[in-house]
Design brief:
Elements lengths: L3 E3 L5 E3 L7 H4 L12 H11 L16 E5 L6 H12 L2 E5 L7 H7 L19 E5 L9 H11 L4 E5 L15 E4 L5 H16 L5 H10 L4 H14 L5 H10 L8 H9 L11 H6 L7 H8 L3 E3 L7 H24 L6 H16 L1 E3 L6 H7 L7 H23 L10 H24 L4 H10 L4 H17 L12 H14 L10 E2 L5 E2 L19 E3 L2 E3 L8 H24 L18 H39 L4 H21 L1
Parallel strand pairs: 3-6, 3-7, 4-5, 5-6
Antiparallel strand pairs: 1-2, 8-9, 10-11, 12-13
Helix pairs in contact: 2-3, 4-5, 6-7, 7-9, 10-12, 12-14, 13-14, 17-18, 17-19, 21-22, 21-23, 22-23
């Protein structure tokens, strides 16, 4: 048992124990002892109104679980145990050290969430809480099984995670109440440590030094307590200078994403963040191209407090002027490659607008305040989405103008003419009205109209979207957008994909069987099959066949050339077959002579070879006849080639006679 000392007033104070960790020793036992009990009060109120599934008064729309998200050391697990202790409930925890795959959860947990007796100390399901710690680290299928448990649970299920935006948790967020833990302000943490920990341990620290320690640790209370205990144990007396050096050496690494950097700028000086110096904000500048876009998207949603007689409109005007100057500086950086103005760009694009407009979050958009309370307080820049849609529409418009410019049926205008005249006045109604009025029966009519102008499926989407843009611009449009059912669109897409292929407009090159290339435009005079072009030479095994020029048929020329090549190939094969076979030497004395089976196999092989030679001879005769016809026609146009062919033919004839 730990020793106890009695103070002058008679109250018992525990003597500090050097073996116990301060993080466990000063762990809060009630909500009143917590440093920042905002989320603890919310969780307590939610648990008090929890009703099991299937019980009277159960609201099916209300989630039966809570997701507690926040960085490590912020107090998520401690909050669950403190609230459960105050409500007199038992916590059954499954953390990262347990097997939490789909199979293990189904075997160990799924059967227990419907039982009345969950543990020895729990007599009914009303006093039990299931804690799934670090649910973002579950094994394969674990998160899916947790979702199935939430659909049929009779006890509250609390889940904790470090990264709320993890892809695993996207589906889980639809079934739980979202509670986000944030780091408490620096001054609150400093007062808490001084009153609850340092005073009891007999350590005196100045507030500025303690705040530096808190900033270096990222407001991680558990990390702070461990570092302070380590420094005090290593030295009997610790001076302020030594403690400052230790605090600088133990700076905690922080992972800051793009949203974190934007929040760092926009929320500084508000209820969710503290003010920072210009040097600190420059050090946290994350992305020179996107952070300023976040600021421009969100700075109008903050209502600063009046300072020195300056109202909200004046503050917004100064912020807009600063953003305009930053745009000019960015142009100098990129177009003139003058990067010396980059510091001014950071100051005027992100730091100055946030300094001018920091204050309470107030939005002009309906429902945006709830988004700020429940989700991220920073909106993603909508310019990126609009720019992507604009680029896609430009690409589709360019494709429409190219495809529709058919010499017989197409259009003859430019892209501006297509978007200003053809689409709104000529294409909009024929492409959308049949589907809206006739349903699936109008699919064939729409496809036939699209074939007239060579339109694709993406072009139809663009034509359908344009009336919606007009409807947004005009409060009372003359022709409202056509309302087409989803089933009709699906039927139209299937029918169009079934009957159309997406071919390129570029000329395709066909490969002939003999290695020669042929263009698509074979019928053109002078270049096609009927033109006066000279065919290329075909060379094989030293024999050249020259095709006929003039108005003769190219197909016949190609056939004769192939016949000459066949004759040359046959001649080469015959020459190879004409080589005499080497005589086999007689077996040496004592060697085994061939058996009867080997002799029979040898005679069978010889018979097969004779039959193959006879077939080759017949083919050679037919090839020689075709070659002689080719020579007769080639003499009139090319004497030299004729003599060469004759020589080749005579050589082939002599080879054939020798073979015979």
């Amino acid at each position: 048992m730990a020793a106890v000392s009695t103070s002058a007033t008679g109250t018992a104070n525990p003597v500090p124990s050097r073996s116990e960790l301060w993080a466990d020793k000063y762990k809060p036992r009630s909500i009143a002892e917590m440093c920042y009990p905002v989320c603890a009060n919310k969780l307590k109120a939610w648990l008090e109104t929890f009703t099991p599934i299937g019980s009277p008064g159960d609201d099916p729309k209300k989630p039966h679980g809570v997701l507690l998200s926040g960085s490590p050391g912020v107090g998520k697990t401690t909050t669950v145990y403190v609230v459960a202790h105050e409500l007199g409930r038992t916590v059954v925890e499954y953390n990262a050290s347990d097997f939490r795959s789909r199979k293990s959860l189904k075997e160990n947990v799924s059967d227990l969430i419907s039982n009345r007796a969950f543990s020895v100390s729990a007599t009914s399901y009303t006093n039990v809480i299931l804690l799934m710690d670090e649910v973002d680290g579950c094994d394969i299928g674990g998160v899916g099984e947790v979702i199935e448990m939430l659909k049929s649970t009779r006890i509250p299920i609390l889940c904790t995670c470090n990264d709320r935006w993890h892809p695993k948790l996207r589906s889980l967020l639809n079934y739980v109440e979202d509670m986000r833990f944030s780091h408490p302000p620096c001054n609150i943490v400093a007062n808490y440590l001084c009153d609850r920990v340092l005073a009891r341990e007999g350590i005196s620290l100045s507030k500025p030094l303690l705040q530096d320690i808190i900033k270096n640790s990222g407001s991680d209370i558990r990390n702070m307590l461990n570092n302070l205990q380590l420094w005090c144990l290593s030295r009997t007396s610790l001076e302020q200078r030594q403690l400052a050096e230790c605090a600088a050496q133990s700076t905690k690494d922080s992972d800051a994403g793009l949203f974190d950097a934007a929040e760092y700028f926009l929320l500084q000086g508000t209820s969710r963040g503290e003010r920072h110096s210009i040097a600190e904000m420059q050090a946290c500048y994350y992305n020179a191209d996107l952070v300023d876009m976040f600021v421009q998207e969100n700075y109008l949603h903050y209502n600063p407090q009046p300072v020195d007689g300056r109202d909200w409109m004046e503050a917004v005007s100064q912020a807009a002027t600063s953003i305009s100057r930053s745009d000019a500086a960015q142009s100098i950086m990129y177009y003139q490659q003058n990067w010396s103005v980059s510091r001014f760009h950071v100051l005027s694009s992100s730091i100055a607008p946030c300094v001018y407009t920091r204050g309470k979050y107030e939005t002009f958009m309906t429902g945006q305040q709830k988004f700020f309370d429940m989700q991220r307080p920073v909106k993603f820049p909508t310019w990126l989405g609009h720019n992507s849609s604009a680029n896609k529409n430009r690409r589709l418009l360019r494709c429409i103008a190219m495809q529709a410019s058919h010499p017989a049926k197409g259009v003859s205008g430019s892209q501006e003419d297509v978007v200003a005249d053809y689409i709104p006045h000529g294409w909009e109604r024929p492409l959308t009205a049949p589907l809206a009025t006739k349903g699936k029966d109008g699919v064939a009519e729409v496809i036939a109209f699209m074939d007239q102008y060579h339109l694709m499926r993406d072009d139809w989407d663009l034509v359908q979207a344009l009336p919606h843009y007009k409807h947004m611009q005009s409060p009372s449009p003359t022709t409202p957008p056509a309302n087409i059912a989803t089933a009709v669109k699906s039927a139209f897409t299937r029918e169009f994909n079934k009957t159309h292929r997406f071919d390129s407009f570029a000329k395709s090159t066909l490969k002939r069987g003999d290695g020669e290339t042929q263009d698509d435009d074979e019928g053109d005079p002078g270049n096609g099959a009927g033109g006066n072009r000279k065919a290329g030479k075909v060379v094989a095994d030293g024999v050249t066949a020259v095709s006929v020029t003039g108005s003769s048929d190219a197909a016949a020329t190609k056939k004769k050339g192939k016949a000459a090549v066949g004759a040359a190939t046959t001649s080469t094969t015959a020459a190879a077959a004409r080589k005499p076979r080497a005589k086999k030497s007689a077996p040496a004395d004592g060697a085994a002579r061939p058996t009867a089976k080997k002799k029979a196999a040898t005679s069978s092989t010889r018979a097969t070879a004779k039959a193959s030679t006879a077939k080759t001879t017949a083919k050679r005769k037919r090839a020689r006849a075709a070659s002689s016809e080719s020579e007769t026609e080639s003499v009139s146009s090319s004497p030299s080639s004729s003599s060469s062919s004759s020589a080749s033919s005579s050589s082939s004839s002599s080879d054939v006679s020798d073979s015979e």
